[in-house]
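The material for today's practical consists of a large collection of protein records. A record pairs a protein's sequence with a compact description of its fold. Instead of coordinates, the fold is spelled out as a row of discrete tokens. We will come back to this pairing of sequence and fold again and again. Here is such a record, shown just as it appears in the course material.
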Amino acid sequence: MRKLVVTTFVTLDGVMQAPGGPEEDPTGGFTYGGWTVPYFDEDEYLGKVMGKQMAGEYDMLLGRITYDIFAGYWPTHTEGWPQVNKITKYVVSKTLEKRTWENTVVIKDDNELKKLKNSEGPDLQVYGSGNLIQTLLKYDLVDELWLKIFPIILGTGKRLFAEGTIPAAFQLIDSKATPTGVIVASYRRAGEVKTGSFGPDNPSEAEIERRKRLAHEGKRRKT
């Protein structure tokens, strides 16, 4: 079984849409494309972190929008990612027919996606691909999250954790902060969500009534 790693830029409110430029993904009327650019520090600390994560042996797993962006740029700009054209690129798409980027493999449905995850081979790294990530989270296929958390709130845009998200626990395995305030944090999947309570063992009558009221309201909203 392959390890699947989601590596992405994200804002404090969870937005991951179009981090690199205004033309990257303006769908939904998104107007903040390129929100990461001002936070790349002069000594390229963040770039060095990314370079280290992008090095090594792995395959890429991409959604169609991110694949098209990458395929339009990286074949002629390999200086920043020397192995990018040799890496196998798995793209999830029902409509892609012409594969202009070398070493591209099309994944057409969720069953093929699950088979890829359960196959033998290098790790799979996911870049961008917000819609695809929702599917990966839905089926609990994500082993690690490599996040770059930027100190801004956008209030709109595609979010990292949206419709496909299921309850899941993660363990922090590494964290750093850049001079411009970007938190680089890596998390590993760590089983189910655990809960507890700081409430009193012998609640007052007022607290008991409060709990009953909220429980009743919760049931009413479900119906």
